[in-house]
Every structure is written in structure tokens, then in C-alpha cells.
Design a protein that fits this description.
Blueprint (H helix, E strand, L loop, with lengths): L5 H7 L2 H15 L12 E6 L14 H16 L3 E3 L3 E2 L4 H10 L3 H17 L11 E2 L3 H16 L3 E11 L4 E3 L18 E11 L5 H6 L8 H11 L1 E11 L4 E6 L10 E4 L12 H10 L4 H5 L8 E8 L6 E6 L11 E4 L5 H10 L7 E2 L14 E2 L10 H15 L2 E7 L4 E2 L12 E4 L3 E4 L29 H4 E3 L6 E4 L7 H4 L2 H4 L12 H7 L4 E5 L5 H15 L12 E4 L2 E2 L16 H8 L1 H10 L7 E2 L2 H19 L9 H19 L3 H16 L6 H11 L4 H10 L23 E8 L2 E9 L4 H10 L1 H7 L4 E7 L3 E6 L1
Parallel strand pairs: 1-2, 1-22, 3-4, 10-12, 22-23, 24-25, 26-29
Antiparallel strand pairs: 5-6, 5-7, 7-17, 8-9, 8-11, 8-16, 10-13, 11-12, 14-15, 18-19, 18-21, 20-21, 26-27, 28-29
């Protein structure tokens, strides 16, 4: 940044005095406090609240916040009762890792980080209602996170199971997915011995809501790409479950979307985690399972990876033809999808085909493709061949007939399957919400009474993992050992904690009633404010956060605690701001721009205006210091317009026309969140104003109201200097006068037989007949029509004249 230039810039525009002044004004007077006002239209605008990291904000963070702030300020001036809150998604691994490394309590690290984030956000002048600030680590907040967990538990939606987790032998600790590198090493310490091992975990039965999560996407106004990502994650498949009996008396149940290909099944594959593998153990199978445990799901499911597997030595019976087919174990089959077992039809499945070729297994064609298409590897619809009772049937009919045939004999059934898995909800960490469950030898799992919430974390001297897969909370023996709430006998508290997702699943509801000790939200406040009208955040949260929040909301809806089936009506994903080198901002690249530096040199209004001027909100765009300086110069010109002396004389027609056209354009573009084009219109207007010999108040006052959502500090100061003693924040938005929006002349296209031949500038209010006459009288058109007969003339008023001639 050009430090040597900043003193000169400040002399032109004293933002360093103006901005703190108006930020104090808004904060002290609670200008943006929101309360329900029946009869007034409401608007609930939500930002995805940040995790307060130690690094603080970089200039990419405020992009979405600036967009929502402009929209909120604009809608307030248009008569809406606006709720715009901010808070902190503050539980997380970095604070815990810092505690392990330094001994500093995570709460202390989190408090400092929140103070930094709050200071940085407040210096940008966002119109948040700070009385509604929430922090997911505050006991008064996570009391209700725990309460919601208990509602899930009582509905049978929270349960325990043995689940594979990443274990690092070097750290003697469970690793989160993000702590395992792509090469399978530990991200924390670089250890090589990282593998999957089963561990008792809490899960939430999100699969019970799979169909509604899918169907209710029709109720929301989200980008289609985000909806499609959610649909793909849920992964609804219609097909059949089929039972294969084995030569050892077991039954292997498979799910298939293509039951019409059963006659082509030449082997069965089990996932390495399938429970039947315990019966089929050999040294080769054990070695293969150990190797598979070191691979991530992404590695195992990549289509291009070389297929591996081991024959178990066992056989299954294909129910449609009674053929004896081998049972293999292979890591391309996942336990989490379907049943963890597949019938392999190598002629008509890409992965099965590659596997069969590698291991010399039979490949049998059972679907005849269209002419000219090779049958081996064909995965589309066709006609059944070599398939007994369904031979000759098209795919759809063959599916129905074979499924009914299986069902009649008790060997299969039609079913719907989902790729979505139940949500792994527990973490072997200290810094998270304690799960309010007590384990009792006599009573089993017992919920902590709601009256005993919040269940707080105990103080620990050592936050490091225990070394034996027990969570750090297991070290707090006085806290762990307790009385069973049901029988009064000895019990042990649950030592797993909730994931960071938990607090972010419902924060939008707590904003509505953040100080309520009796309920997570009062019903009347929820009914007034919900749903969220606009939700803005990064596309990286397109799947999990949105899916988990929608799931919790639907449970609360079913229990009568909320009034809407979906929480977020409209969703916008802001694009990424890259470094000046066109790369993602990163400390390792040395291209991170700190907003503190930008505000110090150019002011918050410049940063706000520049980030919105860079391009469409959803687009990815590179930072440009030169662009920042250009926007600063624009604000300097605005400042000088008002410094040059305001006159009371009325503006001339040309200036009136320019003003009202600008009002019209800025209004339309702000409503559409097209902030970059709204700013362009204001820049063009300032150029017009700068050329005027006088500065009429009748023009300057409406213009400063247009500027107010975008550069609020500067606008407030100018409004004050125009003689007003109250805030601009709730002044009415200017309205364009239709009389000044009429154009005096228009450009009309003239076509002959649909081809452009001329353009005419004509008075704006010509009739159809007059337009036709002008077009036919054009010297160029007359020359082109020489020797032709005009058969028809089509006139589109204000746009074109098309002459049909032959």
C-alpha cells in the first residue's frame, strides 16, 4: 500500500475523523436495534457467522457482510423493519490445538479472537443489532444446543454405534477428517501410522428426513447449483434389495438400481468393513482390510484408481438362476452406501468391468444396447438379453417384472436408497459442547434433566488426547463420575463432545430472542421474524451446514417449536476475492490483504465501495490496490461536491433528468443485489454534477440518500452538513419522478427482411404510422428498396421497423 500517499489523500477526505464519529453515534443510540412491529413489513437478513480465528479478518470476509449491509440499509429506508444480527461460531479445533501447545485455556483464546473480529467488523460500519450478538461457547447459548440434542434423543434421532474414525498411532489420538493429509499422513505432526479404527460414537438419524430434505428444496429460492449439490449429497436411488444366500448359510443383502441385470451378476463384493467379513477371515483378507483402513473414502471411490481386492474363498447363490458365484472383498465398495455389499455385473458397470478384467472374472452381457454401441461396458437402458423370464423386455419393464418376481418368492423387494448417511455427531475433543448424557450400568444411557442445563465443561490442566482413544474429558474424573439422574446410582458422564456444526445449526433462531432464559426462542418472536428472508455466505458451506441446519429445523418444526418448514427462504453465495496475483489469499503465498491496512489508508467506506465495485457479488475476482485508490478518489470528488457550497436554486432540466435516471437505476440495481452497476451509475452522476456551475440542494440531498447504504459514514456526515440533526439511516429512499424518466429521442432499428439496414434517431413519442413513414423515407432504405415491392411493414414502437419486400 502506498503509505507515502495517504497523508495527501486524508487532506482531501477526512475519513479517519468521520468514520469513528458515526460508528459511535450508531452504537450509542442503538440505531439498528430491531424489535417486532406488527403491521410493518419485516426483513430478516442473515450472514453466515464467522469462526473467530487468530488471524482475524482478511478482505475476503467483509464482502458478503458489506453486501447484506447495503441491502439492509436500503430496505430500512424503504420502510422495512430489518433484523440484521452478528455472532460467533466459536467452538473449534484451532483454539484447542493452541491450548495443547501452550496451555492457554481455549476460552481465553476464543475471547481474544472474538474481540479482534468484533473490532474489525465494527470499524466497517455494518448496521448490526449488537444487542443480539451470540457466541456458541457461551453457556447461556449452548444450554439450548444441549436442549435441542435432548429433543433429538427423545425422538430416537440420536443413538450410539461403533463407527470407524481416523486414528494416529504417533499422536495417540483421533483425528478429524481435515487433519488427515491427502497422502494419508497426520497433518498435526506428520506421522505415517494413520488408519481407521472402530470407536463408539454418537450419530444423528438425519436419514429419517432424507425424503423431506430432498422434496422441500422446492420451497426455497436458492441457486440451482446449490440445490443440485444437496440433491447429489442426499443421493436418492430407486431400486431393489436382493438376498443372496451363501454356501455357509449366511445371507448377503445387496441394493441395486438395476435389478434387470441380475442374470449378469457373476460375483459378489463386500466392503472391507462388512460384518460378514469376520466370518470369512483369512491372512490375505486381514491384510487387505488393514490396508483399506489407511485409505480415505475419496481414495477408495475414485473411478480412475486401480482396482484391488481379495477372494474370500466363499460363494453365494444368485437367486434368479441358482448359479454359484464367488464372494470378494474390495475397497471400492463402501459400507456407508446401500448395504455395504454389491452384486457385480461387469458387462454393465464400469468399476465392476475393470475389476473383472483384472481378476479374470466372467463378463456376461445381459442388456442389448442400441445399434452401433458396444455391449461390454454399456450402462444405459436397452433390452434384456440372456435373462430368463425378462428376456426381450425394455429396461424399465424388466426392472418392474424381476422385482415383483423376487418379492413373490421372498428374495427381494422394491426400495428407495439414499447416499446420505447418518450424521457422525461426536468428537473426541475438549473444546465443544458436552453431550448431556449419563451412562448408568443399570439404566443405560440417561439424559441429563433439562433443569440441570447447561452442562458445562470441567477445567483441565492438560488438553492433550489421552492416548487410548478416550476423549480428553475422560481425564476429569470428578466431573465424569456422577449420579444417575434416573436411579441415583453411580454413573459416568458422556466424554465425547459435539462437533462445531452443532452451534451453527440453530444460531439464526437464537438471534430472535438471545436473552431468553426460559426458551431457545419465544414463539411470538419466531412467528414474526421467520423465515430468514436472505442468507448470504460462501459456497463452501453449500452442503453440510445447510443440510444439518435444515434437518434440525425440520425436527423442531415437527415438535411445534418453529412455524416454518424451511429456515432459509433465499440464499446467495458471494464469490471469492483473490490476491493481486490471482491466487487464493494465503499466508504461504504472502498475498493476504488485511482490512485494517486498507481502512487505515483509505477508510471503511472505500473498502466497502471497492469490494462491491469489483464485479458481480457471486463472481470470483482479484484484488487491485489501484482499484481501491480509484474508488477513494471517487469519494473524494463526492466530498468536494458538498464542500463547494450548496445553493437553494432549482436544478435545470438536464440535471433533473440525470438525477432521476440515477435514482431509478440505483434503486433497481440495489434491489437486485447488482451493487457494482449501481455504483457505476452513481459515479456517472458525480461526473455530471462535477461539471455543473452550481450545487443545488434539491439534487445533493436525494443523491446523498442514494449513497447512504454504500458509503454510510460519508453520507451521514454530508447529511449532517446539509443541516440535518438526525441520522440518515431511516430517511425515506428517494423516488424517481416518471416525468423525468422519459427520453426525448430514441434510436430505432430499421430492417429489410429481418436484416439490419439502418438506424434512425427519432422523437420519442412518434406514432406507429409516423415511425413507418420515417423508415420508408430514409434515403438509405429508399435506395435499398429500389426495384422491390413493399409487401408488409411491422412496427415495434420504441424499438424497430421491419420491412418485408420482394
Amino acid at each position: 500500500m502506498a503509505n507515502d500517499a495517504s497523508p495527501q489523500l486524508r487532506r482531501k477526505y477526512p475519513f479517519d475523523v468521520i468514520e469513528p464519529k458515526w460508528q459511535r453515534y450508531w452504537y450509542e443510540r442503538k440505531t439498528f436495534a430491531a424489535e417486532p412491529k406488527p403491521g410493518q413489513p419485516k426483513l430478516y437478513v442473515l450472514d453466515m457467522f464467522p469462526y473467530p480465528s487468530g488471524a482475524g479478518l482478511h478482505v475476503g470476509h467483509p464482502e458478503g457482510y458489506t453486501a447484506t449491509d447495503i441491502y439492509c440499509r436500503f430496505k430500512r429506508m424503504n420502510g422495512f423493519n430489518v433484523l440484521h444480527p452478528m455472532g460467533w461460531d466459536a467452538f473449534g479445533l484451532p483454539a484447542e490445538q493452541y491450548a495443547i501447545d501452550t496451555g492457554t485455556h481455549p476460552a481465553e483464546t476464543t475471547r481474544r479472537n472474538i474481540e479482534t473480529f468484533r473490532r474489525q467488523i465494527q470499524m466497517l460500519g455494518f448496521s448490526y443489532d449488537w444487542d443480539r450478538e451470540v457466541d456458541t461457547t457461551d453457556p447461556s447459548y449452548f444450554k439450548w444446543t444441549q436442549w435441542i440434542f435432548l429433543q433429538l434423543y427423545r425422538q430416537g434421532l440420536a443413538y450410539q454405534a461403533e463407527v470407524p474414525v481416523w486414528w494416529c498411532d504417533g499422536c495417540k489420538a483421533v483425528l478429524a477428517n481435515e487433519e488427515v493429509n491427502a497422502d494419508g499422513t497426520c497433518d498435526r505432526k506428520g506421522h505415517n501410522e494413520v488408519y481407521r479404527r472402530p470407536l463408539r460414537q454418537w450419530l444423528l438419524r438425519i436419514t429419517a428426513y432424507a425424503e423431506r430434505l430432498l422434496k422441500d428444496l422446492d420451497l426455497v429460492q436458492w441457486p440451482e447449483s446449490i440445490k443440485e449439490q444437496q440433491r447429489n449429497w442426499i443421493g436418492r436411488s430407486e431400486g431393489a434389495e436382493v438376498d443372496f444366500h451363501t454356501d455357509s448359510g449366511d445371507t448377503i443383502r445387496v441394493f441395486t438400481t438395476r435389478p434387470d441385470t441380475l442374470f449378469g451378476a457373476t460375483y459378489v463384493v463386500l466392503a472391507p468393513e462388512h460384518p460378514l467379513i469376520e466370518k470369512y477371515r483369512t491372512p490375505e483378507v486381514d491384510a487387505y482390510r488393514a490396508a483399506a483402513a489407511k485409505k480415505s473414502e475419496l481414495e477408495r471411490t475414485q473411478l480412475e484408481k486401480e482396482k484391488t481386492g481379495v477372494f474370500t474363498g466363499r460363494y453365494a447363490i444368485n437367486p434368479v438362476n441358482q448359479e454359484r458365484i464367488p464372494i470378494w472383498v474390495a475397497d471400492y465398495v463402501m459400507m456407508g452406501y446401500g448395504t455395504g455389499a454389491i452384486m457385480a455385473v461387469p458387462a454393465h458397470d464400469t468399476r465392476d468391468f475393470e475389476f473383472a478384467k483384472k481378476f479374470g472374472l466372467e463378463i456376461r452381457v445381459v442388456v442389448q444396447p442400441p445399434p452401433g454401441v458396444a455391449p461390454h461396458g454399456f450402462t444405459g437402458d436397452g433390452v434384456a438379453v440372456n435373462s430368463g423370464l425378462i428376456t426381450g423386455l425394455p429396461t424399465a419393464e424388466a426392472k418392474r417384472k424381476i422385482t415383483a418376481w423376487l418379492a413373490e418368492r421372498g428374495w427381494g423387494r422394491a426400495t428407495v436408497n439414499y447416499k446420505l448417511r447418518d450424521w457422525l455427531f461426536s468428537r473426541q475433543r475438549y473444546w465443544g459442547e458436552p453431550i448431556p448424557i449419563v451412562h448408568c450400568a443399570g439404566c443405560g444411557t440417561v439424559p441429563v434433566p433439562e433443569s440441570a442445563l447447561p452442562l458445562r465443561l470441567p477445567e483441565l490442566q492438560d488438553y492433550s488426547p489421552s492416548g487410548n482413544a478416550e476423549p480428553p474429558l475422560a481425564k476429569a474424573t470428578e466431573w465424569v463420575n456422577c449420579r444417575c439422574p434416573q436411579c441415583g446410582g453411580p454413573g459416568k458422564r458422556e466424554t465425547n463432545t459435539m462437533p462445531q456444526w452443532a452451534g451453527s445449526c440453530w444460531y439464526y433462531l437464537r438471534y430472535l430472542d438471545p436473552h431468553n432464559d426460559e426458551a431457545f426462542v419465544a414463539k411470538d418472536k419466531e412467528r414474526y421474524w421467520m423465515p430468514v428472508d436472505l442468507y448470504v455466505g460462501g459456497a463452501e458451506h453449500a452442503v453440510l451446514h445447510l443440510l444439518y441446519a435444515r434437518f434440525w429445523h425440520k425436527v423442531l418444526f415437527d415438535l411445534g417449536h418453529v412455524s416454518t418448514p424451511e429456515p432459509f427462504l433465499r440464499l446467495i453465495n458471494q464469490g471469492m476475492i483473490l490476491g493481486e496475483d490471482n491466487r487464493k489469499m494465503s499466508k504461504s503465498w504472502g498475498n493476504v490483504i488485511n482490512p485494517d491496512d486498507v481502512v487505515r489508508e483509505y477508510g471503511a467506506d472505500t473498502l466497502r465501495l471497492y469490494e462491491m465495485f469489483m464485479g458481480p457479488l457471486e463472481a470470483t475476482k482479484p484484488w487491485s490496490t489501484q482499484g481501491v485508490e480509484g474508488v477513494y478518489r471517487f469519494l473524494g470528488r463526492v466530498w468536494r461536491l458538498y464542500e463547494d457550497g450548496v445553493t437553494e436554486q432549482p436544478p435545470g432540466p438536464a440535471l433533473q433528468k440525470a438525477l432521476h435516471q440515477t435514482i431509478q437505476h440505483v434503486t433497481e440495481q440495489t434491489e437486485a443485489l447488482a451493487f457494482n452497476t449501481a455504483i457505476s451509475a452513481m459515479m456517472e452522476f458525480v461526473n455530471v454534477m462535477t461539471a455543473q456551475p452550481t450545487r443545488p440542494r434539491a439534487v445533493l440531498e436525494p443523491f446523498v440518500r442514494l449513497l447512504a447504504p454504500y458509503a454510510p459514514h460519508l453520507a451521514e456526515e454530508l447529511w449532517s452538513r446539509l443541516g440535518h440533526d438526525h441520522t440518515l439511516a431511516c430517511e425515506p429512499w428517494p423516488r424517481p419522478d416518471p416525468a423525468w424518466l422519459q427520453e426525448d429521442t430514441l434510436s430505432i432499428v430499421v430492417q429489410i427482411n429481418g436484416k439490419l439496414r439502418d438506424k434512425l434517431t427519432v422523437p420519442a413519442r412518434l406514432s406507429r404510422e409516423e415511425l413507418e413513414q420515417r423508415a420508408l423515407a430514409s434515403p438509405k432504405i429508399r435506395e435499398l428498396l429500389a426495384g422491390l415491392t413493399v409487401q408488409k411493414v411491422i412496427v415495434v414502437p420504441g424499438k424497430l421497423v421491419n420491412i418485408a419486400a420482394a
